[in-house]
Amino acid sequence: xxxxxxxxxxxxxxxxxxxxxxxxxxxxRATTTICAxxxxxxxxVIPCDTPDEAVRMAQTLGSDxxxxxxxxxxxxxxxxxxxxxxxxxxxxxxxxxxALATTNGTRALLSVNxxxxxxxxxAVNLTVAAARARQAVEEGQGVLVLCAGREGAFALDDxxxxxxxxxxxxxxxxxxxxxxxxRASLVLAGSLGAAWTTVFSRTRAAADLVASDLAADIAVAGxxxxxxxxxxxRDRRLTxxxx
Amino acid sequence: xxxxxxxxxxxxxxxxxxxxxxxxxxxxRATTTICAxxxxxxxxVIPCDTPDEAVRMAQTLGSDxxxxxxxxxxxxxxxxxxxxxxxxxxxxxxxxxxALATTNGTRALLSVNxxxxxxxxxAVNLTVAAARARQAVEEGQGVLVLCAGREGAFALDDxxxxxxxxxxxxxxxxxxxxxxxxRASLVLAGSLGAAWTTVFSRTRAAADLVASDLAADIAVAGxxxxxxxxxxxRDRRLTxxxx
Lengths: 243, 243
What we know:
Order of helices and strands of chain A: EEHEHEEHEHEHEHEHHHHEE
Helix content of chain A: 25-40%
Distance between the termini of chain A: 25 Å
Oligomer: homodimer
Strand order of the largest sheet of chain A: 7-2-8-1-9
């Protein structure tokens, strides 16, 4: 059994996701927003590579599809929703399909190949996601945490969240074969403390949200277990698996 | 003035090295070996993308060129030297040109574009490299530390060395605009302690060296300031700039 973290999709080896149980993290904000939408009754979230793809997806699937997403943190003109977890209210999303296009998170979800399972993870579903990772290891499966990062580069918010996730699931010194990034994420989580929003606030992603008048999203993303669902990607849709 | 770290060449933005003073780190082992070779009198080290390119380079430049490098940590058949700093003795390299092909480090050196200066850094030249970085910032230039990483993925040995380098140059909390990776590397360096070889020994790169019977290289790479030279890459050659 092995525990791997990749800090960016580009850092993933060609076979590194094959057969593993994969958790994709884009904590500011895509995977937080996906949890919020499904927790509040959305039927499914369809991750899209580009806004154009989201539009085509909506045309194919019909009228109950909401277009959602961001470019440079801001809502996309003509779309129903942005990429803010605060927009994913029950009133807005219950019973709906969402076609979601974001710069990093949805692309990271789509970059995974040949995994046994693919889930969306964040602080808002930390406990339930960590429990699933523990179960996977108990059943003899490898775990991969894939951080979305930021335009191909390392993002501290995602790396810290990966470390908090591994800490929650396996403790500070897992008796498992960890790759270098898994060890580093555990060090970051152990050193930076448990105050999610304090850590987030020192990251580039948070600075961009503040600059776009979206600072309130940081507090939502840092509310541990606020949306305790485990979105699973299957047949190109994120849904909550039946219990 | 900004302080950037990239954990892999792939994580570098298209303009991120432009105009900066760049320090490339592949501590296990390429940049350590480059320092050893120049410290022991090699005239220059020519970083090569592949063993074939090293052979072509030697054919072009003539008989005093030594072929050096590794594939999967091991010496390349037909080459004069491997990629071990222990091979770079004065007897072996003094007065020679070396054409060096390694999997990660030489490629990282060649991936930098448009920088003001490009240097090779490691633990063995930490103090002199950190002093150069401090000077760059004092003169108003941005600094970029580029970790070679490992086949496109994060390598803890390089990230830790980047943090030690920034700590040495600027202290634990630089009054400079740091990117997320710079902050993370400072946390890693601050948390993992000052024992180079202890930290190195927990990395994948070290495990591979041990498996190839090259464990003694880890202790050499972890000997701070053992080879206090500052190799600069210019016109495709690494040399020690005239004082």
